[in-house]
Write a structure and sequence with these properties.
315 residues; alpha+beta; three-stranded antiparallel sheet; 33% helix; globular
Length: 315
């Protein structure tokens, strides 16, 4: 049993009916190199089954503390069902890229079941009309709640499911799995009381769900001049999402980051994204003079107020 940090639990508290902290990533595979040229779903299922012991994310579900007096815990799911989490679907004909993006958008938008481990994997077939892909290719779409994974652990999660070489050594068999017995409400309340003695601020946890709106209201009262720049994106969040991709060469971003000392690939990606956002708003005659504030996986300013791309990268 592991307790969530306050940071990880905040992603759960921020969930709303129309906005969930889901992290979704897509990988596409060419199965022509598999013996026989076909990789069956049951083989994929067995492969994942053999890797479950390598990451606690797979079998861990939430256990909430009564009255929300403390951060929730990760406990092993006694009713874990792999076939619930790994699903097999196919695109309808003709199976083109547009249909794939629509399907990915719908899957990403759906909330995860908070009573089960917070992840799902979809094996998606029927990609035959996507001309850029080899015939018979399939995709894995993985959706995980942000409370269970961050950027670093996401990479570890991907590595768990893959081998680094074409012919990896035979893994050691996993030990038999016996789920732990979760503590009852009384035990959880005792733990919460002890934690509140050592960290009194935990008593404020029940207020955290209302904290974002409360803090925003307080900031407006105390600092009326510090309003965020409004754009067409400042609107009510709907349940709908849009998934799409653009292809870039890594060498292009290597060249971009070389323009500024100590810049990384992440900096180059953010600079390009900010440039695209700047051009979009400028094309609609809505580019503000002030810098925009956006929620991105990096805690830095986007520099949308800077026209020169190299200066934006240095920013």
């Amino acid at each position: 049993m592991r307790q969530l940090s306050g940071h990880d639990a905040s992603f759960l508290d921020a969930d709303t009916l129309h906005a969930n902290a889901n992290v979704t990533f897509v990988q596409i595979y060419d199965q022509s190199t598999v013996p026989g040229g076909v990789l069956r779903f049951k083989t994929i299922l067995a492969h994942i089954q053999g890797r479950l012991h390598r990451s606690p994310v797979f079998r861990s579900k939430l256990l909430r503390v009564p009255l929300e007096l403390d951060e929730p815990y990760w406990v092993e799911d006694e009713q874990f069902d792999l076939e619930y989490h790994v699903r097999h679907i196919a695109l309808p004909k003709p199976g083109d890229w547009r249909q794939f993006c629509i399907q990915a958008s719908r899957i990403h938008a759906r909330a995860l079941d908070l009573h089960r481990p917070l992840w799902e994997i979809y094996v998606i077939e029927g990609l035959d009309s996507i001309t850029e892909l080899p015939a018979g290719s399939f995709a894995l779409l993985t959706k995980i709640h942000h409370a269970a994974i961050d950027v670093e652990s996401r990479n570890e999660f991907i590595e768990v499911l893959h081998d680094a070489t074409r012919r990896p050594p035979k893994p050691e068999p996993a030990e038999p799995w016996f789920p732990e017995r979760p503590p009852g409400p009384v035990s959880l309340l005792r733990r919460a009381a002890l934690h509140c003695l050592t960290a009194p601020t935990r008593l404020l946890r029940p207020l955290r769900r209302a904290a974002p709106a409360t803090l925003a209201f307080a900031r407006d009262l105390l600092h009326p001049e510090r309003h965020l720049t409004a754009t067409r994106f400042n609107a009510v969040v709907t349940p709908h999402r849009v998934f799409d991709t653009r292809r870039f060469l890594v060498e292009e971003f290597e060249a971009i980051r070389a323009l500024v000392d100590d810049a990384g690939i992440d900096d180059a990606v953010l600079a390009v994204c900010a440039g695209g956002l700047r051009r979009y708003l400028a094309a609609h005659a809505e580019l503000p003079k002030a810098e925009l504030c956006a929620n991105v996986p990096w805690t830095i300013g986007l520099g949308t107020d800077i026209e020169d791309p190299v200066q934006r990268l240095a920013r």
